[in-house]
Amino acid sequence: MVFYCPLFSVSTKGVMSLKIRNIEVGNRIGEASKFRIYLGTMDDQRPVIMKVAKTFEDGSILAEEAGKFNVLRAFSEQVAEFEKAQNGHSSRYDQLFANIVTSFMEPSQGDRRINVFETPDIDLSKLVPLTKLQAEVEIDVRTSIWIIGRLFKFYGFFELLAESGDNPIVRYPVFSPDDYLIGPKEHRLIYYNFSKDIADVVAFDFVKAIAKFILGWVVVGDDTAEQEYLELLNHFSEHGRTSFEKAHEDLYALVRRHWGIQYYPFTYRDRDTFAWKTIKED
User: Fold this and answer.
1) Can you say whether the dihedral through the CA atoms of 133, 134, 136, 138 is positive or negative?
2) Model confidence at 153, in pLDDT bands (50, 70, 90)?
3) How far apart are CA 82 and CA 160, in angstroms?
4) Long-range interactions of 180-184: CB distance < 8 A, separation 24+
5) What is the pLDDT of residues 235-264, one digit of tens each?
């Protein structure tokens, strides 16, 4: 998938305005083989992501995708209700993926299907494609930890879904960084695009792929704690884990041992530079 904008913006200055139902269509921000992706603004000023099928026939892809996101939302609500009854709080799995607002066939667009998404509890203007950020900056160890932690938690959610027995076959998204948006300041990582999925996956290969992605992004220092983290990443990349839950446990056992569980600002440096910068919560 190719993205066209540097950051998410709903500005349509200089662009002919188009309104579909109650949504003002903004800039095109990406394209896949069967659909195009646009920003949009609803009548109540909520920013949204719109996926528009290229042809009537391509709409079946988006209809299938809408069903998948509805399953994720319904199961996250079920898990949250159970967790709150058990211990009074929720793991907030719903924050890990986009929320599908509506899916419809639009007569004014040749009955092409349109899926409309919003991002839970964070404005689109604060998000950027994960691959864009990875291409532009390097990150330090503790920043990389919360990112890989979010990825393991996201896939762990699919393990919970499989264990629940609610679905006879659970299809796991193939790991592709293109399918995520990231909010550096708010520590948010949001999955919004099922580019490819497979049934009944074993965690080994995906844990390896995720670790290799992080290894290609993080800058590791010489101190003992960071070197131990590097050893863990290398072990993930070579051997994987039997489950995403196990990978998550191993990661945070190391974190607790060296740093403790606490907020750490997004710390980065522009590629080919040496000066570190931070993006902190307000």
Assistant:
1) positive
2) very high
3) 13
4) 180/129, 180/130, 181/8, 181/98, 181/119, 181/127, 181/128, 181/129, 181/130, 182/127, 182/128, 182/129, 182/130, 182/133, 182/147, 183/122, 183/126, 183/127, 183/128, 184/128, 184/133, 184/266, 184/268, 184/279
5) 999 999 999 999 999 999 999 999 999 999
**Distance from CA of residue 229 to its chain's centroid?**
23
Q: Give residue-wise pLDDT tens across range 79-112.
A: 999 999 998 889 999 999 999 999 999 999 999 9
- Higher pLDDT, residue 54 or 10: 54
What the chain holds in terms of domains, given with CATH numbers, is 3-124 (3.30.200.20), 128-279 (1.10.510)
39's CB contacts (< 8 A; 6+ apart) are 8, 9, 10, 25, 26, 27, 29, 47, 48, 49, 50, 124
In the sheet that holds 180-183, the strands lie side by side as 128-129, 180-183, 188-191
